[in-house]
Write a structure and sequence with these properties.
Blueprint lengths: L3 E4 L1 H9 L2 H15 L9 E2 L6 E5 L2 E8 L4 E9 L7
Parallel strand pairs: 1-5
Antiparallel strand pairs: 2-3, 3-4, 4-5
Length: about 90
């Protein structure tokens, strides 16, 4: 059961600003999560909201995992110091 990965425009712009190595690590980790039987074992649930995060070094990606439609939506990507700020 593979999940489909979708990326918002805001997250796509942030990916383009990252160095190539970090961006590649994010894409590799997202593929691993998407092909996993249980993607929830690879992510951390955020407190107070129905979102999840993954980390690569000092950077975080905020995800919305939709179990019914098998979609992993990358909402935001950024440095850990400011990615959680609305």
């Amino acid at each position: 059961m593979a999940y489909e990965i979708e990326i918002t425009d805001r997250a796509e712009r942030a990916f383009k600003k990252l160095d190539k190595r970090t961006a590649q690590r994010f894409y590799t980790k997202l593929k691993t999560i998407a092909n996993s039987e249980d993607p929830f074992q690879h992510v951390k649930r955020l407190t107070g909201v129905a979102l999840f995060s993954i980390r690569v070094g000092d950077y975080r990606a905020i995800l919305d995992i939709k179990r019914e439609s098998l979609v992993i939506l990358v909402v935001r990507v950024g440095h850990r110091s400011d990615v959680y700020v609305k």
